[in-house]
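BUG: 3D viewer hangs when loading the predicted structure for this chain

Environment: internal workstation, default settings.
Expected: structure renders.
Actual: progress bar stalls at 90%.

Input used:
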Amino acid sequence: MDIKTGEVVSIRHYSGIKLFKSIVVERSLDNVTIKIIEEIESLNCLEGDPIVLGFESENEIYIASCNIVKIKKEESQIVVKFDNIETLANKRISERYPVSFYADIRIGESQTKHLALVKNISFTGILIYSKIEFPLYQKLKISINIGVMLTLNAVVVRRLKETHNIEYGLKIVYNDVTTPNLLKRYLLHLKKEQSDFINKYCKEQTKKELEE
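Structure tokens produced before the viewer hung:
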């Protein structure tokens, strides 16, 4: 498995509502430089942001959890560093799925909302970035927009201070049967959306290469 220069990839960033078509322009060890075909300003990227990168290799679709390490706005390029890469075919719903979207966080029964970025999510847990200090074992309510507003009860089980954010591992606590069903449908939707996107643009790229 490898990402090649010139290859079409998808980018998911929390400031966009769709997958963005992009091109690999350079690869070095764990870092990949990507040119975003659409206007990079529309993504409103910041260094340290979570990014999901999708690509095809040897007829398998892969998704990579990444972070932005450098932004080259004049060239409409971003440099991302991989955290991990997994094949989409083997991605089970119970496993964490890389994402990049906003969430509102409330402490306990407080109505005060704090902004967070969700980096991955599964049936049992969430990984978020935030500027706010939450203690271990703090109970939180996380609201995310998945077409409908979904609110998850969670507990902080891990925290790690990074360069740009504080990273929190949260354990989801369910109190009903509707919430896990909604989350399951959303994770299945993400998987299908990623697969459809890569299949479409990789086929277009292959066709173009054959015609040249």
